[in-house]
Amino acid sequence: MRECQKKQDLSVNPRLMKQIEILVSMNVSTEMFLTALSKNQIVIDINREYQEEIKKNKKGPAVLSYTSAKTEAHIFFLLYTYISYSYIDMSFLKKDYLMKLWTTALNFTKLFTISRSITTHLWLIEFLNLLALKYNPKEILGDNKIKKEMHAQINALLVQIANTSAKNVVIYFNRPGSGSEIPRFRTVAPFTPTIYKIYKSYVTNQVRARSLPGSQNELGENAEHEATHHENSRIERLMFRNFEEDVSEQSLYDRYRLFGLKTLKQVGLPVLQNSYSPERIDRVIVRV
Q1: Which among 7, 11, 79, 8 has a CA at the least distance from the CA of 43?
Q2: Which of 6, 50, 65, 190 is the most exposed, fewest CB within 10 Å of its CB?
Q3: Which residues contact 112 (CB under 8 A, 6 or more apart)?
Q4: How far is residue 227 from each of residues 56, 61, 217, 220, 238, measured CA to CA in Å?
Q5: Where are the chain's structural domains?
Q6: What is the pLDDT of residues 24-71, one digit of tens each?
Q7: Which residues contact 133 (CB under 8 A, 6 or more apart)?
């Protein structure tokens, strides 16, 4: 699990990819994979550290740990990738298995919902959205315990992300007065699927811009289209420009506000639609 990608985790790590290929070829069920991961010592240590931090600082502002945030991002990157490529047997879509899977999944995600890391909040909502798409829980929403826990976690995550995006919470990316022995916080990678897709667009646009003479824009002559492109490019620059070196508290918060807004736009409604019963969809849409 400690295997990570080089250069801020944005390049391909052959060793990690081989590990995932082996896991997928073994056809380990998602429920079994989650159970094993939840018992991993790294996951147990992370949860214990957050429990201790909450006892010390119940009402104070969140102080983030770059090391913990990166470790959590690696865990969810591995988990998300595995579930994305894992084979679904039709027996896995039966009610009994879905009950077992979602109980295990919610117990696992609950270990991380107390995390102060903004990156982890984004990964959690992406993971729950993927799980709802692949193992639709609507058939088991008659179980009040599962339904209550699922909706509580999803709603809490959406509120946390929205509050961060609106800058309604006080966050210190680096503890005030901390020495140089503690790694300075910077934008955490691996990125979530939503953010990575935008990052790829940013890189493509940067390469394209450097290849064009002067200020020409090859996107065409449609003024509205061009204006939209320029606005998107401006936002992408705010999100990713110099992100590997930037340790400024203000610019880190601004980046993560945009990460949150983009995630809510992409994932917010789908995760609610896939986790609520059909008769409540209209109310969910109005709420969003």
Answers
A1: 79
A2: 6
A3: 46, 47, 72, 120, 124
A4: 49, 39, 11, 11, 17
A5: 6-190+266-287
A6: 888 888 899 999 999 999 999 998 988 888 777 767 787 888 999 999
A7: 270, 274
